[in-house]
Amino acid sequence: MFSLSSPPFQLLCCLIVLFILPLPSRSADPDPLQDFCVADLNSSVSVNGFPCKPAEQVVSDDFFFDGLRKEGNTSNIFGATVTSANVFTFAGLNTLGLSTNRVDFAPGGINPPHSHPRASETGVVIVGKLLVGFVTGDNVFHSKVLSPGEMFVIPRGLVHFQLNVGEGKALAFTSFNSHFPGVVISSTSLFGSTPSIPNAVLTKAFQVGDDVINGIRSKFGS
Ligand code: GLV
Ligand code: MN
102 by DSSP, 3-state: which? Predict the structure, then answer.
């Protein structure tokens, strides 16, 4: 047998790392196979992503998007709104493994606990003060109050939120390593699904009575 510091053992470790690193399960969206593939959102062909618009029909405007210029309407129960530049709104992102959100907050507004099944997220605060937090797979809560110019990262799939803790409005831009990261909002997916999750599941899961579950359901329309 060889020891941990022996060259054969180190060579074996290097080979294991080299084989494991490229496995698709470690990445977000797959790498593109061409320079660009502006999505043809009207195609009837169904693939993992969208088929490409014919290259001769691609124009400069396919690579630009002005949908994040305007402040979002924050008149909703959360006092915050997310405007997305993803493959559905900005077809030029198709296959590139990237997207961006603009998140506007009224005073006291919250982007409620949610997760993204297909991407990690980074974010930069542009205006105001945000309490940003996420919970790890072993239930450790990490959080920090961020000011303009400061940045955060949320590892893929973990539940996270941003709460406006400043005096006025707040604004952040977030980025994802997927052209369509997806979003699962904890409260609406548990209490606002169609059809509803049975009370027997939710009362047991949260260790409360039907009255509490029905009270929360009534806020999320299920
Ligand atoms: C913020 O968490 C976002 O998903 O844009
Ligand atoms: Mn998010």
Answer: strand
State in Å: Cα 175 to ligand 1 middle.
8
Judge whether 22 and 15 are in contact, CB under 8 Å. Answer: no
Cβ 164 under 6 angstroms from ligand 1: no
Whole-model pTM: value is: 0.85
Give tens-digit pLDDT for 144-193: 999 999 999 999 999 999 999 999 999 999 999 999 999 999 999 999 99
* Residue 203 alpha carbon to ligand 2 centre in Å: 27
> Quick check: 104 and 127 in contact, CB under 8 A?
no
Displacement of CA 215 from its chain's centroid (Å) = 28
Q: Is 82 in the pocket of ligand 1 (CB under 6 A)?
A: yes
Amino acid identity, position 11: L
Question: Which amino acid residue places its CA nearest to atom 2 of ligand 1?
Answer: 161
Domains (range + CATH), the chain: 55-188 (2.60.120.10), 192-220 (no CATH)
In this structure, is the dihedral angle defined by the CA atoms of residues 183, 184, 188 and 194, taken in order, positive or negative?
A: positive
What's the pLDDT tens digit per position in 77-91? Answer: 999 999 999 999 999
Q: Which atom of ligand 1 is nearest to the CA of 160?
A: 2
Q: Is 74 in the pocket of ligand 1 (CB under 6 A)?
A: no
